[in-house]
Amino acid sequence: MATIRPVTEHGITYLSGGVGEEEVSGMRAMAPKFNLHLVFAQKSGVYLADVDVVIFSPSGQQVAAMKSEGPLLFVSLPPGRYRVTATSDTVNVTHWVTVPAHGGADINFYWG
Q1: Which one, of 48, 36, 42, 44, lies nearest residue 106 by Cα?
Q2: Cα distances (angstroms) measured from residue 105 to each of 18, 43, 76, 91, 96
Q3: Residue 50 falls inside a structural domain
Q4: Residue-range definition of the domain harbouring residue 28
């Protein structure tokens, strides 16, 4: 199985990848450890990698920034409301999400 390791930066832990079946399986197994699950794809269904992601608090303060190495990005955040902006080929897509105290939140980002 492909080796997938979470990364912690500025107190925020995340896991990115999802290129190939083995990596997708490994990430799905680790998904319950994260409370925000993001998927990046074109509207045609083609998955995207190398997506820049910035997560903001409701007041506009940057909470985290990372580049997703594959179409899946799982993040562990304190419960609360966040604005998530993902950028692929200079096109920004933004979603608001409420991360619950228990369970998780899922967001699909689409381009094109």
Answers
A1: 36
A2: 18, 21, 11, 23, 11
A3: yes
A4: 7-111
Q: pTM to 2 decimals?
A: 0.95
User: What is the CATH classification number for the domain harbouring 36?
Assistant: 2.60.40.10
Q: Are 82 and 72 in contact (CB under 8 A)?
A: no
Q: Phi/psi of residue 51, each to 5°? A: -95, 130
Which pLDDT tens digit goes with each residue over 7-59? 999 999 999 999 999 999 999 999 999 999 999 999 999 999 999 999 999 99
Q: Per the domain annotation, does 1 fall within a domain?
A: no
Distance CA 43, CA 108 (A): 10
As for how many domains the chain has, the answer is: 1
Q: Which of 30, 29, 69 is nearest to 47 (CA)?
A: 69
